[in-house]
Input
Amino acid sequence: VGDSSVLPCPLKQSIIMVTWKIIPKTGAPCTLGYRLDTNTTNRTTCSENMNWKSRPDLDASLEMWHVGIAQEGNYTCEVVTADGNFDKKYYLTVLVPPRPSLYCDDHGSPVCEAAAGKPAARVWWLLESNSTPEKEGHDNGTVTVLSRFTACSTNVMNTTCMVFHLTGNWSQSIPC
Output
């Protein structure tokens, strides 16, 4: 989320036309087209944060800026040449880093939360715990994971929560 992305489209010799067909998981499909004979480009219902990386006759790659969850979906580049039609397919998955936090609840127990990540983060305690993480899915496809530390012994003074995610890992300790 928030990064730029480039999807390459391999060009062949003697191109006639290049088309990007985009079918997002949510929202309307969009197309970007280029015709060599008229040297024209055309776009249909594509968001303003995507376009050809450069001139489509030189580089037919698709560039996207500030990628969001709405851009997740199927992307197909179709190249029409005198030798036939060729396509390159992608499925764009958007990763959302969770917002980790560690705090003490009203009962003095540590609570570790990884809010609104995609996919769901994994939450672990450094010390042995009987806790089972709770997951809450959100409408935008993100997931919040919450874990309350339940000590296996009464001698625990300080504990560390670790959050593992494809976008990066995080750890913090807290005395409750």
